[in-house]
Design goal:
Blueprint (H helix, E strand, L loop, with lengths): L2 H17 L11 E9 L8 H14 L4 E4 L14 E8 L1 H18 L16 E6 L19 E7 L4 H11 L18
Antiparallel strand pairs: 1-3, 1-5, 2-3, 4-5
Helix pairs in contact: 1-4
């Protein structure tokens, strides 16, 4: 069992219950799944991109990627219905907690000029999304084997009903949110 899950079961549930003023222990927010997505519009011109990025996502997550196809034709982009234009991986259970620990302890600190993840990634329904501009921040990726730097989107799906519960859960797990500076209001000059 993951150390993250153990700490959540031992002390996290009680701490979150007190912090969020939740009476029922079963209503305490928990992490349900982590979804890793990448869009590959360039795959319309070069089909090797799909396999290359699929292999890289497999190395990052330890799980095989699902191909995501276009739902309709768009002639301006030379896109046909059924063309593969993205990849998705859904992590649950042990792999989810292992991936989360790796994100917080290894990947996020490797990002250049990192000052914390944005607090604007909440959707208000229990989900938090973060975008990474480079897949090379993951230690499994060999920089010499990369043909092009591509970004990914990572969504953390929780059972929380609002932003406050989601943020409290992710903070307990160690997600480093940025500190928001309060803007100083300029006072009117004295006469």
């Amino acid at each position: 069992m993951s150390t993250l899950l153990e700490s959540y079961n031992k002390e996290g549930i009680k701490k979150l219950q007190d912090e969020l003023k939740i009476v029922n222990r079963m209503a305490v927010p928990k992490l349900i799944k982590i979804v890793v997505n990448t869009g590959l519009g360039e795959a319309l011109a070069d089909k090797k991109v799909i396999q290359t990025m699929s292999d890289q996502l497999g190395q990052i997550t330890g799980q095989k990627a699902q191909f995501r196809a276009a739902h309709k034709d768009i002639s301006a982009f030379k896109l046909r219905k059924g063309d593969v234009i993205g990849l998705k991986i859904t992590l649950r259970g042990e792999r989810m907690y292992t991936f989360f620990e790796k994100m917080v302890r290894i990947v996020l600190p490797r990002i250049r000029d990192f000052r914390g993840v944005s607090v604007r990634g909440f959707d208000g329904k229990g989900n938090y999304s973060i975008g990474l501009k480079e897949q090379i921040v993951f230690p499994e990726i060999d920089y010499g084997q990369i043909d092009k730097i591509r970004g990914l989107q990572i969504t953390f799906v929780t059972s929380a009903k609002d932003k406050k519960g989601t943020q409290a859960l992710l903070t307990f797990f160690g997600m480093p949110f940025e500190k928001i500076k309060k803007e100083k209001t300029a006072s009117a000059p004295r006469k």
